[in-house]
Every structure is written in structure tokens, then in C-alpha cells.
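Entry 14. Structure prediction run on the chain below.
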Amino acid sequence: MKTILMKKLVFFSALFCVVGVAQAQVTVSGTVSDAVGPLPGANIVVKGTTNGTQTDFDGNYTLSGVAEDAVLVFSYIGFKNYEVAVDGRSTINVTLQEDAQALDEVVVVGYGTQKRSDVTGAVSTVSSKSLQEAPVTNPEQALAGRAAGVNVSTNSGRPGGNTNVRIRGNNSINASNGPLYVVDGVIGAGPINYLNPNDIESMEVLKDASATAIYGARGANGVIIITTKRGGKDGGRVTYNTFISVGELANKLDVLNADEFLQVEMNSYNNAQKYDPEGWNEGKYENPMEYRNDPRLFDENGNPLYDTDWQDEAMRTAITQNHNLSFTGGNEKNSYGVFLNYADQEGVIKESYLKRYSGRFVMDSQVKDWLKVSGGITFNHIEENRVDGSVGGLTPLRMIVETLPIIPVKYEDGAWGTNADYPNMEGGENPVNLLKNRKNIHKTQSVLGDVSAAISLAEGLELKTSLGMNIQNIQENWYSGKDLRQLSADYDGEAWAQNTRTNYWQFENYLTYTKAFNENHSLTAMAGLGWQQYDYFRSRAGTRGFTDDFYEWNNLEVGANPTTPQSETYKWAMNSYFARVNYTLMNKYLFTVTGRLDGSSKFGQDQKRAFFPSAAFAWKISEEDFLKDSHVLSNLKFRTSFGETGNSEIGVYQSLASMSSNTAILGGDRASGVGIGTLSNPDLKWEKTAQFDAGLEFGFFDDRIKLETDFYYKKTTDMLLDAPVPTSSGYSSIYTNIGSMENKGFEITLNTRNIETENFMWTTSFNISVNKNEILALGEADDDIFPGPWFLSNTNVLRVGESVGSFYGLVREGTWGANEAEQAAQYGALPGDIKHTDMNNDGQINDADRVILGNGYADGFGSLYNTFRYKNLDLTLDLQFMYGNDILNLSRHSGEDRTGQANSYATVLNGWTPENQNTMIAENRPSNSYYTSTVDSRMVEDGSFIRGRNLILGYNFPADVLDKFKLGQLRVYASLQNFFLITDYSGYDPEVTTYGDAFAQGITFFDYPKPRTYTLGINVSF
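Output returned:
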């Protein structure tokens, strides 16, 4: 009986399975619209499955394999989700309703979110779509031009770039001027070059004191809040995005070819007698015709065998590939996301590269109705070879210009060509040799993690507690070959290995209370406390004296001459209490009050704590009765704020007396000693920046035209400087608060929807920012400060009444003419020599004649975006501009001042001659023939430019194709970056600096060129 019963159960179970499988399925099609018309790109998914599609440009969709009793979910950004039972139908048309809450964009602010319409501070938002339009590996580059007031200078074309981010100018001299980065709540997670741009959901840039004061002591330079992508809530999804790029040199420098070099060398020799008759008579100079007989370089008639273009030889077509793979899934209560990335970027300079491997896992879980837990962890590994280091030395970038064109890369016997093969030349090895045999490998491993719990304590009252950490291990390995002339050959090669480890953690807890009392009153109050700690350790070991180049840095003990080992460690900690109250009256009048009390271990015994308050007010004028029903003005909002923020980004232990070690030779032996190195200052306190901001937001014709303007004024006081002390103390200076500085400017952002039809759309976005910086005080005497870099002389100056970044040097009027011989002689010069202005008319040219020559920071900058969409095709045009900035092109020092001893820029062909006296270039002669070489106005160039930054053409495949291949999205695109550049600058690119000094923007000495890049990419999801 039991056997018969079991057989029946098996039979009916099988029957039900067959019926289930054979259940009728239909193909559903239709149109998705809103109140205006069709909605292209709307999502349709079978509820509880991954079977879905999107509407085409006309709002039409087709979805096959749908069970007769299924439920379809229709969704679109800014509209309420809509669920429809199929009930066997094959045609379902849907009209979606606008979601007022969704349409009001949510903005991430410190420790919370706000509706865009309720924000009282100056906050700019950059979406993931905007960030991913530019195929780059550094998210700071993707930020460039996206937000008014944010100047992102991409100062190098090397892989990964060398970016400099400033929000509303510079605020400090000795503390940091870079913004504070907050990544998924982890404070101070910058610089963010290690992040994968594809992982970023949005960036919020907090600019005024109302927005930044919640970060108190670390918010003076603005705050960039980065929110990364989270898991899915509508079933599982697999997404794969990839692109491949080809980069090439965008423009070449004009240097001498072989014949021109030989002619300039002969000119220099012939003119040496005029400028150095004594050295000439002593036989100091040798006739080049007497040694142009090397059969490796010249034929029997003395003609060069080679005419090497070193830019072609040292550069290449660079290939970049980038792959992003993500898995997301979940539902309304639990979601997860796994994000993987591999990037391999070649530089246009040979041997330079960047490789990144990254993985990220995130989860969000509504464990209980009253408890939500979230967390994420990101791991990044970056490896790069930086070939543009050692500024000022005989780097590959310098030798691209200075290596002789008559020299080959290699001779037939395989030996490297070098300037040393031709007599009386200076300089190092050829750049290809340097690139092959000199390495600077940086490896960075970082772990960024956060975990948080949000506990609902009562209606409207939530407690959030979070723990974040950021750990970085940086390994830098260096090797310079044993045969590299004038670099490491003198000590048979050099190697060193340096390891740096940084650990940061934070623990924060805060309560948020939200309450709407009635239709006219709403309140959001937040209060919390937190702790932060950072520790740093660095060690370095090196050696010299290798028998061959095999081991490089991998076996330092084989070096015969170890160098002195180094190590360094420090730590700092902070404790903070913060609060913010947002009050809205009648949905028209918005008030925000913020305060933060910070305590830091970096400051003096009695100055470790400081309070940073701010207040803001906004008025939604368009909500007033006299404007509420306007058909022209859809939005008008006035906002203003005032507050103080701080800058704690200084070195540790500055308030304490520090110890320093010294060595001396006693009795033939080295002896070491320790003593007081710097004076203590128990009164050392925070720099404070007070900022006033006033802004207007306009919306016209249902926000088809949106205009936002801001005016701001910032003043930094208690600026930290090294102040002189009486020499009787035994010390020269003490670190103290004695300076001040101001920034003032305005920002304009304009967004328009120019054309909106069924098949065609054209939108425009334009922004411009203007900032003026002025130093107000530099101590009691207001003496000039020379912050560096130092090159031949002081290159820039900090002076009261002037802006930071001011170039400093002599004024070159031109050259002395033949009719000015008597006047030139008063200055020890001859006709053909460089003529500098005697500013104080004392009959001599010296440091007293140096003046401010220009400034590396722009008066204004901005961008212009145009996006066109025709059916499934889209085209984006991205232009960037900057004006009022100067370039101090120090490359001209050796590029024009070494005639006949190294290769030169072609400008030396315009050198002074009796027939060509109206020129800025001195008469060709060897540099040791009393050639004047110094920083002067000849090196200053206008750096203004207009750049075609990006041109993108994309195609989104229609719904029928997606259905056929079971895809959620399929997009292909092509882009062209840096496709034109309009500038008067003579170098590779006017957006440049090669120095790490705080105010060295625009100062360059042989920089890494930016490539022109061609890209093909594909985005697909399942």
C-alpha cells in the first residue's frame, strides 16, 4: 500500500513539474510614457527574476519569456515604480507618475543627506555618469571641470597623472592647501588617485563654511565627499565595462636637427673669442672642425651620419586597457555588491606605466526593523614606473632635448650612444638608455574599510555608529645603472629600497532627530562625537658599488658601499564633538547652524582645542505667493552663510622642542651627538579660515534653464610661519601663528536643455570660476618669504599685497645692440649679451633688481559641455579653458643657454648677430664664455589655453537587440581626448608643474607631455 502511494506521489509531482515547465509564456510589448510623452531608457523587469529590458528612444519595449501570471515592474529615475499583472496580455502600455521626492535630488552632506532644494550651503554634485565619460585611471582627473570653484590641474601626462586640486584658492603657506577627502564616511582618505573611478557613485564638493564646518579643523580647504556604488535591490545583475585606448604625443618641441646643431656649435666657437679673449688666447676653446672625424659619427667629408629625433626614439604609441566587472544583487532588505577592476596604462614615454588591481565588496542589511548594518572593504594594488623624477637632474625628459642629434641610440656593435662620444659636450646618457637602465618603481597597496550600524531608537530618532580605517603600504624601489654617465657611473650604480606604512582609524557615533511638527515646521538635528588616529613609519636602506646591474634593489648586500640607513615614525590623534541643526519654516525659509569642537595632538599645550561654528540661511523665493504660479520663473533661491573652519594639516610635533642628530670626525673616527634642534612653542594653535558666501539659484521655464551664482570671501588668520628669533637664543626661527591671507571670487554655473523633441535632445553645461588671492600679513616685519623651488636663484616669492605663486626674477629687455656698447660696458657686458633692466638704477644687475614677473595661478577657469542625443546615438563635446595664468619655463635655462655644448631649442637660431640685433636670444657662444643665465622674464610665458578635452560618440542598442541577447544594457562608444589645444605656450602643455613645492604651479623643468588619446569602449549588463 505504501509502495502504491509513493508511486502516485512521484507521478503527481512529476506531472506538476511538467505543467509548471510547460506553463504558457507570452511576449509582452508596449509603450512607457509620462504626462509629456514617451520615456526612453525606462526599465521593465519581471518581478522576482532577472528577466528585463529597457525602452528604446520612442519609449517602446518588447519582453519575451514572460509567464502569463507574472508581474511586471516599470521604473524610471524621478518616477514612482509601477507594478502590473500580465494576466495573459501581450500588450501593456504604462504611464508613469512623477515622484516629487525622487525628482528633488538627494545631496550627501557631512553625516547625512539633504534634498537639493533644502541645501543652504554651496555644494556641487558630480554624478557617476559624468565621472565615467572620461576614460581615465585617476578620479581626480575625471573631476576636472565638473564643479565651479574646483580647479583640478592635471600637471603631467604620465600614467596616473600628477593632479593638483584647489577649491576656491589657496588658504595657507605652511599647512596643506588640498581638500579633505571623505570616502564612504572615512575622513582624510585622500589623495584618491588609488580609487577606481568606475566604483564612484557620486562626488559632492562642499565649498562654503556652512557645508564644511561640520568637518571643523580639517575643512578649511573644502571637502570632497565620495560615495561609492552599492549593491542592487532588484535581483541579480552582472555588469562589464571595458575600454582600450591608444595615446600618442599631441605636439612636439622644436629642437635643433643635426645640421643646425653643428652650425650653432661652430657659431659658438667663433664667438667665444669676442666674449672670452683671455680664454681664447690660452687655447681654452677647440675648433669643432678638428674633431669631426669620428667614423662612427661622420663620413669622410665631415657630414653627420645620424640625425636622430630623440622625441621619436624615447616616445611611443601607448596602449591602455581597463576592465571593470561587477556583481550586484539583493532586495529591499538585503543587498550586496562585488566590484573588480584591472587597469594597465602605458605612458607615451617608453618604460613608464601604471597597473592597478582592485576589488571591493559592499553589503547592506536591514537586520531588524530598527537595525540596519552596512559595510564595505576596498583593496587596491598599484604599480608604476615613474620616469619623470629627480627634477633638475639629467632625467630622460631633459635628455630628450639635450642629447645631440648626431648621436645614435645604439651603434652597430650594440654600445649605447652618448654625448660623451663627441668632444667638449656636457650632459648625461641618451634618454633611451636612461629609460632602460634607470628605474623608479612605486608599489602602493591600500585597504579602505568601513562598517556601520544605524539603530532606530524612536520615531524620527536614529543612532549611527561607524568604524572606518585606511591602511597603506608604499614600496619605492630605485636603481640607477653602474654605467650611466654623470648619474651613477662614478660610484658603480646605486640602489635603494624604501618602505612606508600608514595606518588610520576613526570611530564615530552620532544621533539624528527628524521631526515635522506640522505643514509649516520641520527640524533635523544631529549631534555626535568621534576619535581619529594616524600613525606613520618609513624605513630606507641603500647601497652603491655594483659589479653588474643584475640585482638592482633586490639584493642590497652585494653593493660594496652601503649608504646610511634611515627610518622615521610619528603619530597624531584627534577627538571631536560636532552638531548641526536644520530648521525649515513654511518650506520657504531654511536655517542651518553647525559647530564642531576639535582637539588635536599637533598643537600647543594650552591650544589643543578649538571651536568652529557656522550659520546659514536660504530663502526659496519662488515658493512665495507672488512667484509660486509663475510660468517663467520655476525656481529662485537665495542663500548666504558665514562660518569658520580650521587647518590642522601641518607636521607633527611642531609645538615641541625637537631633537636633532649630528655627526663629526673626532680623532679620525665618526662620532654622533644629539641636541635641541628646534624651539618649542606651547602657544602654537590652529590656522582659522573665516568665509562668507552669498548665492542665487535660478530656474526658468520648468528648469530648462538653470543658473547658479556664488560670491565668496575667505580670510585665513593665525597663519603658521617660521618667524625669526634673536640669534642670541642660538636658533634662527620659531614656528608660530603670525600671518594672514584672503581669497575672494565668484562662480557661475549654467545648465540648459536647449532642444527637447521626441527624437532629438541638446543640453549644455557651462561653468566659470574667478578667484583673487592676496597675502595680508607675513609677521611683524612683513618680510618676503621665498618658498621654493630654488633654481639658479629664488624662483617665486610670498609678498604682502601679492598673490601666492608669484614668479620672481630679473626683467629681460632683450640684448645689447651694437650702438649700446658704451652703456653695456657699464654693466660688464658687450653687444650681443642679454640686457636686463636695472630696476634701482644703481649701475649693476643683482638681486635688488628682481621683481614679480607673473603668477602660476589662473585668474579664471571653467568648462563647456554640450551633449546631443538623436534616438540611440549620443555625442558629447567637452571643452576646458583657463586664462590669466603664467608659466615659468625653466627648461629654457639649459634649452637656450647651452649652445654648442648640448642640443638646444630651435629658438637659438634667432640668436643675436650684427644683422639680427632685435632679439631676446643672446649671441651663440659657450656658456662658460661669460654667458648670463638666470631666472628672468624670458622664461615667463602666457599659460592661458582652450582645450578640447573630450569628444565622445556613443550608441545604446535598442530593446529588441537587448531582448534577443538577454541583456539589460549594451552601449558602445568612441572618444578622443585632448583633441586640440589653443595656447601661446611653447612647451608641451600649459597645465603643468614638475615640482612638489606648495606654490610651484606653472613652474616646469622638462615635463612629461600629455598624450592625445583615442578610446573604444563597451558597457554591458546582464
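Confidence is low (pLDDT under 50) at residues 1-22.
Filed with the rest of this week's runs.
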